[in-house]
Structure formats: structure tokens, C-alpha cells
Write a structure and sequence with these properties.
The complex is a heterodimer of chains A (about 90) and B (about 350). Chain A is built from two helices and four strands; from the N terminus they run ββαβαβ. Chain A is of the alpha/beta class. Chain A has a domain at about 30-90. In chain A, strands 3-2-4 form a three-stranded parallel sheet, sandwiched between helices. In chain A, helix 1 (about 40-55) links the parallel strand 2 and strand 3 (about 55-65). Chain B folds into two domains: about 15-210 and about 345-355, no CATH class; about 210-335. Helices cover about 35% and strands about 15% of the residues of chain B. Chain B has a four-stranded mixed sheet with strand order 5-4-6-13. In chain B, strand 2 (about 55-60) and strand 3 (about 65) form a beta hairpin. Classes of the chains: A alpha/beta (about 90), B alpha+beta (about 350). Strand 1 (about 1-5) of chain A pairs antiparallel with strand 1 of chain B.
Chain lengths: ~90, ~350
């Protein structure tokens, strides 16, 4: 008996990791919050630690209108021009 | 189009052993599947004129793609007949629309299941149930089309419980959640007509649905009484969000509305206006959020949004409402949207038949 596999072919991904920053001392931080309860509060607390410990500067707070969808490309492109690294994560 | 040929598994000519083989491969939803033998898959594919490699949906987060071929394999496994296949294909074409947010609704702790509502003559043609025991068991197309959706989410898109499907509790609709709209005795335009499809064209509407909430009212004899029960279910503190709603009215309840001359729009307005909770109450239960209130009451707010209250949804159009179920019984239902807000917007698509 011959059965077809119900699985799909693995996707061809072209994603690559960004190179690590040489240093985070004095770096510009962006925050991308997802709109969930407490997301902004939690991410601001995390950013505060970078400010205190590494002299980082918070430059941008961006928001997603849909927590479970990818950030719009325009949002990421804008933020990328303004910061050295971005902090994001889930709220709740 | 996928460049890869579909993979074949050689198994002994023993049906029960083949069923066990499918279990061993992790291809099932927990229930036995029909082994996807080649000739059945080809018969399934014959109900769509396009090439088997045609892609009908893509999972944005992983890049995994659904071809007609893969859909047909899973449809066979679910127990579908070839004439059910156009409904399944249309459902995924609808779910593939960006605003459905296919990934989020399948992965989230919210535990939604895609509810399919088939509208128009095609449901009758393939023997779907729109009548007694609407959401229950016993009807092959309802059961197997909904089941095929789940198998595709599992096998093609790899939404695996506990790994990529992080539903906190899930809901029973994750086995199958598929109904037909009842045309017999329905005084309103069918959904497919309201959606603007040409006469004779059927549609399927997909909705990232939370669990099922029965709305019992055997004593109400006016539209206001019946609909106050529905609105209260829609706005209970567990369910109330900015999300959309599906309401399936029992024929008994529909007769009360129709006798009073209420249209679908009239009912939608009533439900939006009354499915609400006071801001203070929302604060008491810890569910009030400024940005949600602003979304409902800010610039462009709907005229029926009452200050000081959170309503369910953003506008009356957020309530999909029609009729289904058996003639006897004052049992309608409300089905909430997935999760808290506007993360998934229901979509619809024409059912492409070979006729």
C-alpha cells in the first residue's frame, strides 16, 4: 500500500542573524511593545537596567497594534534607523 | 508552486496496520485516520481543476505552504469525500487573508479553533447539516471538513499542541468546528448574499473561535427578551473584549424576531448596544484598558457606543448572525472570538465548484 505524506515540504528560509554589537556601552535602545497588558511597563523596566548599567539611551518606543502578528515592516525599518538594538517581548 | 514531489510511504497491504502507521508518524488528531492511499488522494484532487502544486495558503511565521495536494491528502485522512474538497479549499483561501492572522490564531494561548460557516446551496448539495444537533456529531461533511482543517494545521503547518500550538485549554472545536447556515425558514438574506456573492454562489466564512456558549431562553416572547439573553452572554466578564462575535439563532428564537419584523441589521444594532459592561465593573475585574476604551469611543467611534461602557466589538457589523439548528428548543448560541481584541478578523471566500 502506498500512502502520501500529509506533511508539506520544508520552507526555504533566507533568514540570517544580525551581527552582534561590538559594545552596548552608551548604545541607543529601541523598545517594541506588543500592546498586551503590562508589556510597556515590563520593557521599560528592562530598558532602565541597560541605562543604569551601560549608559544606554532610550530613543524609541514603538507599538504593535496586533500582539500576535509580526511587526509591520515599516515599523522595523523606521526603528532600525534610530537605534542600535531593540528590546521586545511579551506582556501579560 | 512547490518544486518537490510529494513523498510516498510504502506500508504493508493491511488497513489496520496502515492506520497504526499513521498514528506512529504523528499524523492524527488522536482519532484514527483514513490512510491516505494514492488513488483516494487523486480522486480528491479531481474536484479542483487547478494543478495539484497550486498553493492556497502560507504560514507567515514558518514559511510553510499548503498546496492543493497536501490539502487533499489531509482531506482523505479526515474522511472527506471529493465533493467536500471545494469547501476545505475555500476555507484556507479565506484563512490565508492577512487580517485573519492565521499564525496567531493557531498558536496563541487563547486556544481558538477555526469555525467554518457554509452559506448557500452547496451545503445542501453535499449533505451538510444546518438543522437539528447543528454543532453535534453524526453528519459526515460537517465532521470531516472541520477535521481536515485541524489535520492541515497539524500536519502541514506544524501547529503541534504544546510546541507551536500553545493553547492554555483549547476547545472541543479543535477536533472539528464546521456548520452550514440554515436556509429553510430563514427570513433573512443568506450570509453569501449579504457578502455580495452572485446568485447561486456559496461561501464559507472562517472565524477564529473561542468556546461555544449556549443561550437558553424558553420564556421570552419578544425580540427584546430573547436578544437581552444573547447580549448578556456576549458581555459576560469572562468573554467581553473588542473582538467579533458569532451568534447562531435557533429557529424558535428567529420566529420571535421575524414575527416582529426585525432585520439582521436591527438585531446587530441591538446586540452591539446591549452587549456592554460599565467601565467601573471592568476595572473591578481587572479587564479595563485605556487604549481599548479609546478604540471604542475615540474619533470615528460608532454612534451606538455609550460613554462609560465597554461594548463587545467595535461596531454592530462585528456580530455575524444567522439561523441554525432544529425547529424545537429555545437554544441559540454565542461564540466569542479568539483572545482579547482585534487580532483576527473573520474572512469569507466563494466556494469554487466544478459546475
Amino acid at each position: 500500500m502506498q500512502l502520501y505524506s500529509p506533511l508539506s515540504s520544508p520552507p526555504k528560509r533566507k533568514a540570517v542573524r544580525a551581527p552582534a554589537l561590538a559594545s552596548i556601552e552608551g548604545a541607543r535602545i529601541g523598545i517594541l511593545e506588543n500592546g498586551k497588558l503590562n508589556a510597556e511597563e515590563m520593557l521599560n523596566e528592562v530598558a532602565k537596567l541597560f541605562v543604569q548599567r551601560h549608559g544606554c539611551k532610550v530613543r524609541t518606543l514603538a507599538s504593535k497594534s496586533n500582539a500576535s502578528a509580526p511587526a509591520p515592516a515599516k515599523t522595523l525599518a523606521t526603528v532600525a534607523q534610530e537605534v542600535d538594538f531593540l528590546i521586545t517581548g511579551l506582556g501579560d | 508552486m512547490s518544486a518537490l514531489s510529494p513523498r510516498i510511504h510504502e506500508v504493508p497491504d493491511d488497513l489496520l496496520a496502515a492506520i497504526d502507521y499513521c498514528y506512529e508518524q504523528g499524523w492524527t488528531d488522536g482519532l484514527p485516520v483514513v490512510p491516505p492511499v494514492v488513488h483516494r488522494v487523486k480522486a480528491m484532487l479531481a474536484s479542483d481543476k487547478r494543478p495539484a502544486e497550486t498553493l492556497i495558503a502560507k504560514h507567515a511565521a514558518t514559511g510553510l505552504e499548503l498546496s492543493l495536494h497536501s490539502a487533499a491528502v489531509n482531506a482523505v485522512m479526515a474522511g472527506c469525500l471529493p465533493e467536500y474538497f471545494p469547501v476545505l479549499v475555500a476555507a484556507f483561501e479565506a484563512m490565508n487573508k492577512e487580517d485573519f492572522n492565521f499564525h496567531g490564531s493557531a498558536a496563541s494561548t487563547g486556544g481558538s479553533a477555526p469555525l467554518l460557516v457554509v452559506s448557500g446551496p452547496y451545503g445542501d448539495e453535499i449533505g451538510m447539516n444546518c438543522d437539528v444537533n447543528l454543532f453535534g456529531s453524526g453528519n459526515r461533511p460537517n465532521a470531516t471538513i472541520g477535521r481536515a482543517v485541524r489535520l492541515i494545521l497539524r500536519n502541514v503547518f506544524q501547529m503541534l499542541p504544546g510546541i507551536s500550538d500553545k493553547s492554555t485549554q483549547g476547545n472541543p472545536g479543535k477536533y472539528s468546528f464546521c456548520i452550514a447556515e440554515r436556509a429553510r425558514g430563514n427570513p433573512w438574506p443568506l450570509l453569501c448574499e449579504a457578502q455580495g456573492y452572485a446568485a447561486g454562489v456559496s461561501s464559507v466564512t472562517v472565524f477564529a473561535a473561542g468556546g461555544f456558549c449556549n443561550v437558553e431562553n424558553h420564556g421570552g416572547n419578544t425580540p427584546e427578551q430573547i436578544l437581552a439573553s444573547v447580549a448578556d452572554a456576549m458581555a459576560n466578564y469572562g468573554c467581553i473584549t473588542l473582538g467579533q462575535s458569532v451568534v447562531i439563532l435557533a429557529p424558535e428564537h428567529m420566529r420571535v424576531l421575524d414575527d416582529a419584523g426585525w432585520t439582521r441589521e436591527h438585531v446587530q444594532n441591538f446586540l452591539f448596544r446591549h452587549a456592554k459592561r460599565p467601565v467601573e465593573g471592568m476595572k473591578v475585574v481587572g479587564k479595563f484598558r485605556d487604549r481599548e476604551y479609546r478604540a471604542q469611543h475615540g474619533e470615528g467611534a460608532h454612534a451606538l457606543a455609550e460613554k462609560g461602557f465597554m461594548h463587545r466589538g467595535l461596531t454592530p457589523d462585528d456580530v455575524l448572525i444567522t439561523m441554525g439548528g432544529g425547529d424545537a428548543g429555545g437554544h441559540s448560541c454565542f461564540i466569542p472570538s479568539w483572545s482579547r481584541g482585534r487580532a483576527s478578523i473573520m474572512q469569507h471566500c466563494a466556494i469554487r465548484t466544478s459546475k
